[in-house]
Amino acid sequence: MSLTDLKRKKPKQVIKSVSVDDFIEDANNYALGKASILNIPTAEPKGLDKKSAKIYRHATFTLTETSISQLDGLAKETKIAKSRLLRILIDEFSHRTAEEQLKVVNKSKKNEG
């Protein structure tokens, strides 16, 4: 037995039987922008899609409890994913001059210690 045999299998979706009339009616509702009468859950992509995942790499960082709570607050307030927020902040910091970067670093040292 290999390790791939140990992967979790996704549970199979139960296929609901639908009459032709209900199918047509639901298609008409979809075309008109109305809600579905069949209540069939649509599969929404979770996380990154295959095309965009190629440009990202997983990383692990150690943060203080304060930093984590600040990041959580920012994410909730702005409705932006934490990883995207970090990419934005890194980009902003990298576009500063060396002098501006040093000021930010020194300011953060005072706040941490």
Automatic annotation (TrEMBL):
Q: Which InterPro entries match?
A: Arc_rbn_hlx_hlx (IPR013321)
Q: Which Gene3D superfamilies match?
A: Met repressor-like
Q: What is this protein called?
A: Replication protein RepA
Provenance organism: Shewanella mangrovisoli
Q: What is the lineage of its organism?
A: Bacteria, Pseudomonadati, Pseudomonadota, Gammaproteobacteria, Alteromonadales
